[in-house]
Amino acid sequence: MHKLYSNPHLFFVEHMQNILAIEGIETQIKNKFLGGASGDVPVFETWPELWLVNPEQLAKATSVIKKSENETGDDWFCPVCKESNAGSFEICWHCQTVKPDTSP
Ligand SMILES: [Zn+2]
After folding, report:
1. How far apart are the CA of 1 and the centre of ligand 1, in A?
2. What is the model's pLDDT at position 66?
3. pLDDT average, residue stretch 82-92
4. Greatest distance between any 2 Cα atoms in the chain
5. How far is the CA of 58 from the centre of ligand 1 (A)?
6. CATH 3.30.70 domain locations along the chain
7. Angstrom distance (rounded) from CA 96 to CA 72
8. How far is CA 91 from the centre of its chain?
């Protein structure tokens, strides 16, 4: 299988998985349950990872991810917990607060 994406926050990985699922691309998340139980394993090796199930969908999956990352707009800061969120996220990854409407 081919690793498509990884991020220290499982929420981001699941978000990307949802975007890909909408496009009909099946993925699996690895390392979903390793975080926090990693002991002396380097932290980056325990990041949740998104893996492509069907290699024939690699080109499409890559373009969907690229598109999703490009059309994100500006990062925003959660008004509740002050965490930084990628522009593509409609809710705060940390506390699930809905993104404030900043459009004019
Ligand atoms: Zn928040």
Report:
1. 34
2. 87
3. 86
4. 48
5. 33
6. 2-71
7. 18
8. 13
Q: What's the CA-to-centroid distance between 57 and ligand 1, angstroms? A: 34
Segment (H or E) for 18? helix 10-22
For residue 8, how far is its CA from the centre of ligand 1 (angstroms)?
16
Length of the chain: 104
Give the model's confidence band at 54: pLDDT under 50 very low, under 70 low, under 90 confident, else very high. Answer: very high
Taking the centre of ligand 1 as the mean of its atom positions, its distance from the CA of residue 64, in whole angstroms, is 26
**Is 60's pLDDT higher than 60?**
yes
Confidence of residue 34 (pLDDT cuts 50, 70, 90): low
Distance 77 CA to ligand 1 centre (A): 8
- DSSP-derived letter for residue 91 is B
User: Which CATH code fits 2-71?
Assistant: 3.30.70
Q: How many CB atoms lie within 10 A of CB 12?
A: 20
Residue 96 Cα to ligand 1 middle (Å): 6
